[in-house]
Amino acid sequence: MxxxxxxxxxxxxxxxxxxxxxxxxxxxxxxxxQGASDGDSKKNAEAALFKxxxxxxxxxxxxxxxxxxxxxxxxxxxxxxxxxxxxxxWGNLPDGTEDGLLIHNETGWSVVFEFENTGYVKDDDKxxxxxxxxxxxxxxxxxxxxxxxxxxxxxxxxxVGFAMPPKxxxxxxxxxxxxxxxxxxxxxxxxxxxxxxxxxxxxxxxTLLVDPEQMEAVLPGYQKTLTGYRxxxxxxxxxxxxxxxxxxxGLTGLVVGGGALAAxxxxxxxxxxxxxxKGGKAVFAGIAVLVAGIGKFFGKIFGRxxxxxxxx
Length: 312
Known about the structure:
alpha+beta; Protein Transport Mog1p, Chain A; 3-stranded antiparallel beta sheet; 7 helices; 12 strands; 25% strand
């Protein structure tokens, strides 16, 4: 999960250090033609990077070999390799499960897709999603997770709470929730909105990376984008057959990390599990990791777009 990490998505944005320049006489203000030239250069640099990482802007995006998504107008899709390279640029530690990335070309909000080969996850505990208990498990995982991030030279994160508590849609077999968190060295809060798309052989996690103040406005577009997502034939949740591999946990385990073992994205193999006792059931919780700062990354490397939610 990442709640791109981070949880798994607890991955956090990397602040790019600006070069130090000795102050002398003020530079003359750029002329309109110079400003336009700079803007073109930034767009060209961005286009070159996207092309290098396999970005495409139309057709169908292949999310690994188990799923695909229709690429909406105004988005760029990256396949697995390009996704993982982009995440590295954003200061994350990808582990190879990241199979796809969608970036809104104008506003910068993005969606990361990653598949967890967990087996079929039963939804028997759909009425037992205790937000308060789950939040405690997630927060309790932070010390170990942040220690691993420190060793990797990445900033610590701190979970604030749920922007939206976990909820399950029986008709689509999607589990959704949103976490608010802060990152040391960055002002304000970030939000990772997670959608677990249940399939026959595992779970695809779609993590929305967005500025907290923009989540409400972006959410309809995000959910519309997911209507173009589908597992390939033979891998849908409805195609489960007796004898298929079963996951060792249910929906609750997915929220706190479950078999995803999110901590492994940070190289953490120590205290991997916490046990949450609820209703006589033991739920194994992996460490969650959040990913954020996408808009900030492009703002610092290519310059911020006027319409970017990260300019607020």
